[in-house]
Amino acid sequence: MAVERRGLKKEEIGALVFVSQTPDYFAPPTSNVIHGKLGLGHDVVCLDINQGCAGFTVGLMQAFLLLEITALPR
């Protein structure tokens, strides 16, 4: 699995942030599709950010904010 090849454990992932100008799906959100394909837990937060030029910055900011939530695994 791609997650393990990167040296991560699926149980340690608490959030998935997907940023794109052109998402593959609107319903279900692309982050949910990726979540399913990676086989992540049911308690993982999935977030799609569909924005233009500012998408990367907004996604990075959201990721840092999610890291501040102590209830999520890092």
Notes on the structure:
The protein has helices spanning 2-5, 30-38, 55-68, and strands at 15-20, 45-50. The chain has 74 residues and is of the alpha+beta class. Strand 1 (15-20), helix 2 (30-38) and strand 2 (45-50) form a beta-alpha-beta unit. The mean pLDDT is 88.
Q: How many DSSP E strands?
A: 2
The stretches of 5 or more residues where confidence is low (pLDDT under 50) are: none
**How would you sum up the major sheet?**
2 strands, parallel
Q: Give the oligomeric state.
A: single chain
| Total helical segments | 3
H-E order: HEHEH
Shape by Cα distribution: globular
Helix content: 25-40%
Mean pLDDT: 88
N-to-C span = 19 Å
What is the structural class? Answer: alpha+beta
| CA-based gyration radius | 13 Å
Q: Quote the beta fraction.
A: 15-25%
Order of the strands making up the biggest sheet: 1-2
Topology:
Blueprint (H helix, E strand, L loop, with lengths): L1 H4 L9 E6 L9 H9 L6 E6 L4 H14 L6
Parallel strand pairs: 1-2
Give a nutshell description of this structure.
The chain is of the alpha+beta class and 74 residues long.
Question: What descriptive keywords fit this protein?
Answer:
globular; 36% helix; 3 helices; two-stranded parallel sheet; alpha+beta; 74 residues
